[in-house]
């Protein structure tokens, strides 16, 4: 499991670096030790449904890391869509919302790693406080039916 997480972190780091190059950031930033260490320091805080409900009622930022198609079918109200690997959506969220510094990220559920991947990219981009709703959209829907 630890090896899988290490491999995922490496893939995400390489994806973020590639995204920075594509979006015209300086090559110096790619080798900046701060950016490299940021990936190592990423540790999102897992949260429960009640936390997300309060987060939403406070009007705070929430990000759906599922595919654009899944997002179009249904999503948590007011969530931004930033699918894993979608660099345009990632850049758009950073451009509009970085000043907020905090967000909750979710994907499909406990077996989905996209929320971790997207959260890590957002952390590297400058978001300082990231929460992970691990139950994801399936957990959200189940809670609505209880």
Straight-line N-to-C gap: 32 Å
Gross morphology: globular
Report the sheet-strand fraction: 5-15%
Total count of strands: 5
> Would you give the CATH topology of the domain at 43-144?
Oxidized Rhodanese, domain 1
- CATH superfamily of the domain at 43-144, by name, is Rhodanese-like domain
Secondary structure: helix percent: 55-70%
From the alpha carbons, calculate the radius of gyration and give it in angstroms. 15 Å
- The pLDDT mean sits at 82
The number of helical elements comes to 8
Order of SSEs, N→C? HHHEHEHEHEHEH
The CATH architecture of the domain at 43-144 is 3-Layer(aba) Sandwich
The CATH C-level class name of the domain at 43-144? Alpha Beta
What key attributes describe this structure?
146 residues; alpha/beta
Written account of the structure:
With 146 residues, the chain is an alpha/beta fold. The protein has a domain at 43-144: Rhodanese-like domain (Oxidized Rhodanese, domain 1, 3-Layer(aba) Sandwich). 55% of the residues lie in helices and 12% in strands. It is built from 8 helices and 5 strands; from the N terminus they run H-H-H-E-H-E-H-E-H-E-H-E-H. Strands 1-5-4-2-3 form a 5-stranded parallel sheet, with helices on both faces. Helix 1 packs across helix 7 (114-125).
């Amino acid at each position: 499991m630890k090896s899988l997480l290490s491999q995922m972190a490496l893939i995400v780091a390489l994806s973020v670096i590639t995204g920075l190059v594509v979006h015209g950031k300086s090559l110096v930033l790619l080798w900046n030790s701060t950016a490299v260490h940021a990936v190592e320091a990423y540790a999102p805080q897992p949260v429960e449904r009640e936390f997300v409900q309060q987060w939403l009622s406070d009007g705070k930022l929430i990000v759906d890391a599922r595919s654009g198609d899944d997002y179009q079918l249904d999503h948590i109200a007011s969530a931004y869509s930033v699918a894993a690997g979608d660099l345009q959506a990632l850049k758009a969220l950073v451009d509009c919302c970085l000043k907020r510094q905090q967000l909750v990220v979710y994907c499909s559920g406990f077996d989905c790693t996209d929320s971790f991947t997207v959260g890590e990219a957002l952390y590297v981009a400058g978001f300082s406080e990231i929460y992970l709703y691990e139950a994801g959209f399936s957990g959200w829907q189940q809670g609505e039916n209880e």
